[in-house]
Design brief:
- The complex is a heterodimer of chains A (about 375) and B (about 300).
- With about 375 residues, chain A is an alpha/beta fold.
- Helix content of chain A is about 40%, strand content about 20%.
- In chain A, helix 5 packs across helix 6.
- The longest helix of chain A has 20 residues.
- Chain B has one domain: ABC transporter involved in vitamin B12 uptake, BtuC, CATH 1.10.3470.
- Chain B has a two-stranded antiparallel ribbon.
- Classes of the chains: A alpha/beta (about 375), B mainly alpha (about 300).
- The interface between A and B is large, with 40 and 42 residues.
Amino acid sequence: MRGGGENKEAPKAAGDSATTAATKAPAASDTILIGEFGSLTGSEATFGQSTHNGVVLATKEVDAAGGIKGKKVAVRTYDDQGRAQEAGTAVTRLITDDKVVAVLGEVASSLSIAGGRVAQQYKVPMISPSSTNPQVTQIGDMIFRVCFLDDFQGWAGAKFARDHLKAQTAAVLYDQAQAYSKGLNDYFSKAFGELGGKIAATQAYSGGDQDFSAQLTTIRAANPDVIYLPGYYTDVANVILQARKLGIKAPFLGGDGWDSSQLAAIGGQAVEGSYFTNHYSPDEERPVVQEFVKKYNADYGATPDGLAALGYDAAKLLFDAMARAEALDGPSLAKAIAASKDFQGVTGVFSIDPKRDAKKPAVVVVVKNGKPAYVTTIAPPTS
Amino acid sequence: MTKLLQTLVDAISVGSLYALIALGYTMVYGILQFINFAHSDIFMLGAWFSYLIARIVGWTQTMPPSWSIVVVLLGAMVTCGTLGYLIERLAYRPLRSAPRLNVLITAIGVSLFLENAGQLRWLFGTQPQPMPQLIVDRPILTVSGGMFSAPVNINLVDVIVVLVAVALMLALEWLVFRTKLGRAMRAVSYDTRTAALMGINVNAVVSATFVIGSSLAAAAGLLFALKYRGLKQPADAGWILLGLKAFVAAVIGGIGNISGAMLGGLLIGFVEIFGAAYFSPHLRDVYVFSLLIAVLLLRPTGLLGRATVEKV
């Protein structure tokens, strides 16, 4: 997954709460310890911080409700600084030193893969809240995730473009330096063609680029009905600003990498009316969503982003499985997680499929008055 | 035809920015024969200080007065000029007589320091931020009809970018070739020791070079921020890449040569934008660096870099 958090209090606030969560976890036997690894510092710091907030919130809730099997739950969190080596070390430490029963993490797929290999080796279940790359759960039978995959997200974007925007032609502008963006381009283009649309132009940029005028001029000449832009929010805002300057009027459509308050802060008027597929929308009226938004706001003073919601869901799903499991050893717990059915999550009602992935709907939101507003939910294809 | 004209406008605008940054690299190299790797960070700080000044003055919500851009420009230039002076005074001057490699490594250290210091929470933070809109960016000239299939917009911001860049480059030419300070700079560049014997204050000249180069980078930073309003976080790799391309521009034009830096900057803008528009945007960095290789193979001193050409 992707996207930046909304929590501007960044490094320090989350660092502090990480320490308290870690220190207040007593090693006594009346406590069940679970582990979490994430990028609490580093360039993807907001990813890790939002996720961590969600996990802590879920833990507080389960403890307030009496814990699991009569025991309190505590989280131990290690910072991996957004580096793959650190992720492996963090998971090793969680499992061998702290003897956690399960691990939660990471956001970036490459880090989930690094940590997942260790968890699989020690037969400790791991749930990734938000890594969308298919390889993550292919590591082995201990690795799960609670978010959708990029192939579905690309398909959902195409479906929305065809059914709701009634687009006949689409142009794609993707970041060729990011596996995430490249993957979404492939899946979207394929699905859009299969659904009867036509890709009028495919253009690419690289992470460091600031000037997109050449690509946008080409796209303008193709005159598409919609422009698919599966990038990260900073680039996205710059692209759309430049597109509007060139007089491109077609709506933009993107993925969960847009999920940040900075998108509208930078893009302003230009990004109004643009759509993106996301894991959840705080506007959704389901009670579980509204309750989560309220509690999160009370604790952190911010509207939770998709990452926080996924962190919360990952922890809740784990607690649910722990309550159902016969014992808390790795294989029993993994069996219980795999058996999760119709879980009422903030990010949708979902089940864990035989590939240990979550089969769940995507939400489409539109940027309205600087905030993402709920448009519709796209359910996974039934086939 | 539409595409050709639009691409031309973009190329000139982007090329002017590269040229402005390249000047700082070339001036320092001309005098000290060393590559100031921290220059791209001065450019980055120029953009971020423009943001900060505009925020502090409060030009974020309401439409700021038209002279606000001048205030921000001067503010950023003075701030970065001071910073350039301090960097030279504290980091480079103590190493003036040390092997050149030491200074080079110090420059990399300064670069890392500036990037990370820029991310301090009370300074700019780790989030990308929007540059306040100091000018209403609207098309001031729209070419359409006839052979144009779609209207071509020439935006105010592009005009400002080119005008300010050209004005600053002319001012620099005047300074270097028409003033006493310029003559001293050229003398130091030609032979430092002899210049010192002739009574030129070498330290003052070197300081002046850093101040001028840094303020030009700050100006480029502001223009860049006006054109691309989403400012990436100070340690983002994008800034380094921009600085690197500007450095390539200086080398292509002939490092140490002022006109060469301008020529190189424009050339790179053209190669990059036209390549991306007419061939494939996937390879835009490849065009730039291929041009560098070609120039280095055919003319190792750069296009205008001849020993007889006056250097700064």
